């Protein structure tokens, strides 16, 4: 449940941040009448994301044997790639999100295009929604469908509350710290997810088998109790192989090295408006 909650919370807050920035700018510029267009685009994006998620989950349940293993392994590896890109992109680009979005909203308002606002909200929020569906599908392969979905829904609900606070200019929620901490946690989770994906490919015969590092199935099984909790969080396996451990360690070292290295200095930041709580860095 914890990985699902973390994924839902992280992606939900990114989507809520976008909506909060757009609404705050419209409110400050006296264009509250355009709120309806933003909410329409957001609602359509939510429905689209649920539809994509439903298709992905149903497809996975229909498959069996090698096809199922390849599908789950592929979903996990793809999710790791997208998740890694999202974490690193947000770390580098977060400070400019508000200015970029406000520029796009300003252009849409200037030409009086409600469709542009609907499209902006749909594309921005829809991207986060589709990413969430993919991440939850991959996480479900390691942690179980019901627990992952429950955790994801709870994370999204919490994100809505945080998003409202961001819109209202609340200062209690430190977005910079949030994205740094969740970025680190998700990198560890992604390493485990990649290891699971490799395991699925080995089971499907796509990758060769390798010697075991340990066999702790009788002491700490990964399908119950503490072992199951460690499996969902860090990719623990009670029959870990050298290949799985090597992939896990290589990804973790590479991703953390890139994530933790100092960013190049940014230019002089723009003077923040009243909605300074929407800045993420």
List keywords for this structure.
281 residues; disordered C terminus; mainly alpha; 0% strand; 8 helices; elongated
Can you give a write-up of this model?
- The protein has 281 residues and is mainly α.
- The chain has one domain.
- 75% of the residues lie in helices and 0% in strands.
- It is built from 8 helices and no strands.
- Helix 3 runs antiparallel to helix 4.
- The longest helix is centred in the first third of the chain and has 46 residues, at 65-110.
- The chain is elongated and about 65 Å long.
H and E string: HHHHHHHH
The residue fraction in helices comes out at over 70%
- The low-confidence parts are 268-281
Beta-strand percent range: under 5%
Q: What is the mean pLDDT?
A: 80
Q: How many structural domains are formed by the residues?
A: 1
- Ends apart, CA distance between termini: 29 Å
Layout of strands and helices, then pairs:
Layout lengths: L1 H27 L6 H28 L2 H46 L3 H30 L1 H23 L7 H29 L21 H10 L7 H19 L21
Helix pairs in contact: 1-2, 1-3, 1-4, 1-5, 1-6, 2-4, 3-4, 3-6, 4-5, 6-7, 6-8
Summarize the structure.
The chain is an all-alpha fold and 281 residues long. It contains 8 helices and no strands. Helix 1 crosses helix 6 and helix 3 runs antiparallel to helix 4.
């Amino acid at each position: 449940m914890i990985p699902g909650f973390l994924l839902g919370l992280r992606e939900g807050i990114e989507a809520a941040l976008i909506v909060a920035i757009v609404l705050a700018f419209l409110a400050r510029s006296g264009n509250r009448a355009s709120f309806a267009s933003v909410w329409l685009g957001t609602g359509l994006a939510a429905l689209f994301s649920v539809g994509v998620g439903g298709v992905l989950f149903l497809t996975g349940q229909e498959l069996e044997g090698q096809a199922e293993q390849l599908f789950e392994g592929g979903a996990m590896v793809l999710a790791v790639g997208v998740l890694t890109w999202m974490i690193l992109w947000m770390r580098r680009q977060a400070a400019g999100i508000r200015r970029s979005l406000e520029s796009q909203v300003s252009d849409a308002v200037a030409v009086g295009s409600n469709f542009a606002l609907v499209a902006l909200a749909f594309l921005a929020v829809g991207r986060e929604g589709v990413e969430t569906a993919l991440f939850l599908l991959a996480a479900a392969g390691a942690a179980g469908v019901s627990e992952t979905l429950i955790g994801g829904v709870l994370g999204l609900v919490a994100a809505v509350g945080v998003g409202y606070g961001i819109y209202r200019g609340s200062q209690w929620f430190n977005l910079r710290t949030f994205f740094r901490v969740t970025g680190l946690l998700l990198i560890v989770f992604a390493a485990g997810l990649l290891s699971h994906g490799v395991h699925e490919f080995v089971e499907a015969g796509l990758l060769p088998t390798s010697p075991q590092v340990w066999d702790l199935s009788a002491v700490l099984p990964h399908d119950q109790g503490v072992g199951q909790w460690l499996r969902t969080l860090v990719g623990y396996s009670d029959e870990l192989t050298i290949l799985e451990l090597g992939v896990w360690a290589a990804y973790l070292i590479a991703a953390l090295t890139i994530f933790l290295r100092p960013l190049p200095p940014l230019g002089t930041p723009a003077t923040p408006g009243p909605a300074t709580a929407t800045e993420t860095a």
